[in-house]
Amino acid sequence: MATSTFGWVFLSCALLLLSRSSNVVLCQSASGLYVFGDSLIDPGNNNYLLQSYARANFPFNGIDFPNKEHTGRFSNGKNAADFLAEKVGLPWAPPYQSLSKNPNATSVVVTGVSFASGGSGIFNGTGNWVNETSGIFNVTDDIGSFPLTTQVEYYSVVHDRLVQQLGSAGAESHLSKSLFLIVIGSNDLFAYFNKAYNLSQQYTPHQYIDLMTSNLKPLIKKMHGLGARKFVVIGVGVIGCCPAQRTLNNTECNTDINYWSVKYNDALQSLLTELKSELSDINYSYFHLYDAMNDIIQHPQTYGFTEIKAACCGSGDLNAAMGCLEYYPGTTHCSNRKNHLFWDFVHPTETASGIFAGILYSGSTQFTTPINVKELVKSMDVNTLIRSFSVFIK
Q: Could you say which protein family the record assigns here (predicted)?
């Protein structure tokens, strides 16, 4: 009887806290990190697409990675997902493709998996739309990247393996304390503003953005149906200021694509608010990457950067004529990667990715809303709280 009374008192106090905030902060830690997105966080999934050009498993990529290994990350070193994993005390999420054929990989799956794929987008055909002049590699066939729909399908396979390994209740508990990182949308916008395609003839920018969010919503809901409760969603950055875009505009930023990137980010935030109202047991941290990246561009020396226009690695104007691949004629790389915002014609350096991950993890509401990842890890919604302490009130 005393235990039951304690349970009711504890639950009452917790519900009182919930009346003041949408989250209750308890002593929790992240159980796993499951990663969805594009080349900004691809750890090497595209290595397994041998006919795809959207691969980075060649030098000079990885020059600052342990053992100078070119893993398939579009970076001189670690990407933002790697840094985030470190922040929450987890190992780097391995590429799903490296595990999918390994029947003994379930223990690795528990701590997290990355499904991210370079060139991918919200739309299935995005990987086939964009070419090198728009800032992403050209993909000439249907297996050039894994779109977000396919990534979510792969996650459903992982979910089933977790249920087999941990049991239904164990998998539910594990996934409710895991982080689900989503970084997607840049390639879709690159595709829309690529004049080689006729997307702008089919849709107005507003219609296209609405289509992006309407396609994204059911995918997030499907992830929720498969146990996802804590989402880390990163908005689109100042993509009109990447070296590839500057070379098309006399070294200046593409203001049109930046304007519509902001509009997409606004729509994305509205979508998250809408999902929270429909799915009360989710919590999320949204990272205003555009604002954080723009702050670096406007105040580079504050962050230790001296070069925010040209890529560190590449060839031609602003080192943005081609990707950072050693076998391309004329490809070079800078000696001081830490003072460059961009590693290649569209991707940030390891240093920039580390800065972004640090802000995402513990930054203020200027850049992370409604909470940062550090707070998200500790958050528990009221439904989970009730389930967790139901044992005390039986």
A: Belongs to the 'GDSL' lipolytic enzyme family.
